[in-house]
Amino acid sequence: MASTKEYLDFVLEQLSELDEVSSRAMMGEYILYYRGKVFGGIYDDRLLVKPVSVAVQLIPYAELELPYDGAKEMILVDDVDNREFLCELVRNMWEELPEKKRKNPKKS
Fold first, then answer.
1. Which of the four, 11, 61, 72, 100, has the lowest number of CB atoms within 10 Å?
2. pLDDT at 62
3. What is the CATH number of the domain that holds 62?
4. Where does the record place the TfoX N-terminal domain (predicted)?
5. What pTM was computed for the model?
């Protein structure tokens, strides 16, 4: 089941307090970025975030779920209605998120 644009719009509205939040559609789902780093995504109309230590601390009883078959487990954020918490979560995750991978130049 693909995610709906309506759910994406809802999550982005919840995060509108943060600058530089963006999304990219990918195979019927959405990858979410904050200040140029991937923090999570929307998969089957579920908000999943990377299991960095601050996210685990802020959501200690969260369930780990697979965004899709063969992927690494991510944290299910089930309190998407709490705008303040959601923004705090993403803001605090930023330092622990990996830098965007750089593409290697082609070798001749």
1. 61
2. 87
3. 3.30.1460
4. 13-71
5. 0.89
